[in-house]
Structure formats: C-alpha cells, structure tokens
Description:
- With 123 residues, the chain is mostly helical.
- The protein has one domain (2-22, 29-111).
- The chain is built from six helices and three strands.
- It has helices spanning 2-21, 29-34, 48-58, 61-73, 77-95, 116-122, and strands at residues 101-102, 105-109, 112-113.
- A three-stranded antiparallel sheet has the order 1-2-3, with helices on one face.
Amino acid sequence: xxxxxxxxxxGFFILTxxxxxLLPFPWWVYPLLLIxxxxxxLGYMINAVTGSYxxxxxxxxxxxxxxxxxxxxxxxxxxxxxxxxxxxxSSMDRFFGYGLxxxxxFKDTHLGTIGENQENAEE
Length: 123
C-alpha cells in the first residue's frame, strides 16, 4: 500500500510540473520556490502544538487548491503559482514520507512516525 501511495504522490507532483508549464514564469522559479513552504517549520520554535498547526495549514492540499483555482478564476498567475507550489511541495513531502504533523511532535505524522520505516528496514 505504501508504494501505491508514493506512486500517487509522484503523479500529483508530475501534474504540478505540467500545470506550472502553463503559467507565465521561467522554469527556474519552480525549484526555487519549491522549498519555501518549509519555512512553516519555524512554528516549532514556539512549541509543538503551534508548530503543527502552522505546518499543517501550509501543507494542507485544500489551501493549495483554493489558491490555485482562485488564481485561475481570477486570472492571477501569482495566486495560481502560490497554490501550485504549495500542492507540489505537499506531494513531494508525502512522497518522501513526511505527512501532516500531530501536535505531539514533529516526527509524529498522519503517515506514521518519521524514521520508523527506515529503522524497521535495517533490522
């Protein structure tokens, strides 16, 4: 099942590359902006609960879709770009096993505990 979910995330990520090609931005913008959503991790400097809320808000696909669709409907390429980057980043994170965070700590995600699969694979 895990491989199927990763394949789905890869498909979403590839879709964002195609959708980006429809926007009026140079290609170098895509990889440059792709890591920007991880700034939301700074919320963990306050505490785990606040960090998880901020991180999850930025990494929520619903927010990404609202921004992208809003950008398309309002003919605002910058708004569409913001939504597309958030969606692409979330797909990339989930492909690598990083999910939405539980308030109990950064490593506790909706996909499981970060690092748990790697530790079990080594045993």
